[in-house]
């Protein structure tokens, strides 16, 4: 069964936009692959907007992936990261640790919890001395059509 059939009837509507914007949109559609067309990409964009709106709601339950890169030689960085994660063990679903080279490590931390709490823990981790880069991506745990 196709993904859209699982959602029910499709409703057609028209969208007016400047020609230049449509040309850029068609380039995006082309980059998304042969299985995508304008309608499917618009559905994807609407879903993305709805998810962003939902995860921004106070009290929303979310899951997120926090990816960080850090120098494991930096003073107490590993101990500090472990302490933060242990202090919030109920929100930490799992972690994955990769050695980039002799000095740098990449860690992916999967979190689940209330949106504000997830962002606070992510900020604490990214703000740890020795963490060179970090980014949080969140999604809803609710139903997405």
List the defining traits of the structure above.
145 residues, alpha+beta, 4-stranded antiparallel beta sheet, 5 helices
Distance between the termini: 15 Å
Structural class: alpha+beta
Unreliable segments (pLDDT under 50, ≥5 consecutive)? 1-5
Write out the strand line-up for the largest beta sheet, numbering strands in chain order. Answer: 2-3-1-4
Q: Number of helix segments?
A: 5
From the spread of the alpha carbons, the general shape counts as elongated
Most strands sheet: 4 strands, antiparallel
H/E element order: HHHEHEEHE
Q: Provide the β-strand percentage band.
A: 25-35%
Helix fraction? 40-55%
How many β-strand stretches? 4
Mean pLDDT: 91
Radius of gyration: 20 Å
Explain how this protein is built.
The protein starts with a helix and ends in a 5-residue tail after the last strand. The protein has helices at 3-7, 19-31, 38-55, 77-87, 115-126; strands spanning 61-71, 92-99, 104-114, 131-140. 41% of the residues lie in helices and 28% in strands. Strands 2-3-1-4 form a 4-stranded antiparallel sheet. Strand 2 and strand 3 (104-114) form a beta hairpin. The protein is of the alpha+beta class and 145 residues long.
């Amino acid at each position: 069964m196709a993904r859209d059939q699982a959602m029910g009837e499709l409703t057609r509507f028209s969208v007016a936009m400047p020609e230049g914007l449509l040309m850029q949109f068609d380039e995006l559609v082309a980059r998304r692959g042969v299985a995508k067309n304008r309608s499917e990409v618009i559905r994807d964009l609407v879903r993305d907007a709805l998810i962003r709106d939902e995860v921004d709601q106070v009290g929303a339950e979310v899951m997120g992936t926090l990816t960080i890169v850090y120098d494991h030689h930096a003073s107490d960085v590993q101990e500090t990261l472990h302490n933060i994660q242990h202090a919030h063990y109920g929100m930490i679903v799992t972690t994955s640790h990769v050695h980039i080279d002799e000095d740098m490590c990449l860690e992916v931390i999967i979190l689940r919890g209330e949106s504000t709490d997830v962002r606070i823990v992510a900020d604490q981790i990214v703000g740890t001395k020795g963490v060179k880069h970090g980014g949080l991506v969140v999604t809803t745990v609710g139903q997405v059509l």
